[in-house]
Write a structure and sequence with these properties.
The protein is an alpha+beta fold and about 120 residues long. It folds into 2 domains: about 10-65, no CATH class; about 75-123, no CATH class. The chain is built from 4 helices and 6 strands, in the order H-E-H-E-E-H-E-E-E-H. The chain has helices at about 10-20, 40-45, 65-75, 105-120; strands spanning about 30, 50, 60-65, 85, 90, 100. The strands form 2 sheets. Strands 2-1-3 form a 3-stranded antiparallel beta sheet. Strand 5 (about 90) and strand 6 form a beta hairpin. Helix 3 packs parallel to helix 4 (about 105-120). The longest helix has 14 residues, at about 105-120.
């Protein structure tokens, strides 16, 4: 029996999309986009904690968001905070029936909710 891997940060594709939507300061991690030879694929796909030099934005690095950072950008809407299910991996705004996302993990659910909120201009 193997234990499922828990996703704890946005993947590179999600990070690139989130960088178009969220303030870069809200990211708490980053991916290096430019590596000099000899670096494994695993190392390239594992973000570093912290924020690199701002002058290198989008040339050498892509911001990345941990689950905590993603949860931190979810706004209060019409006086209501999002409800989060750790068991079922969903996020919903109970007082707004059309604001519900569900995924295999909470990082993906947060990502989908942020995309949805951006489309609705609620971020």
């Amino acid at each position: 029996m193997t234990m499922a891997t828990i996703k704890s940060y946005s993947d590179l594709q999600q990070s690139k999309k989130l960088a178009e939507i969220l303030p870069l300061e809200s990211a708490d991690m980053y991916y290096w986009l430019a590596w000099s030879g000899g670096v494994s694929e695993e190392k390239r796909n594992t973000p570093k904690v912290g924020t690199p030099n701002k002058d290198a934005i989008k040339t050498y690095w892509c911001p990345c968001w941990s689950l905590a950072a993603l949860l931190g950008v979810l706004p209060e809407i019409q006086g209501g905070k999002p409800a989060i299910s750790l068991y079922d991996n969903y996020i919903t705004y109970p007082h707004m029936s059309d604001l519900h996302t569900e995924a295999d993990n909470l990082v993906d659910a947060c990502y989908e909710m942020i995309i949805r909120l951006n489309e609705l201009k609620l971020l």
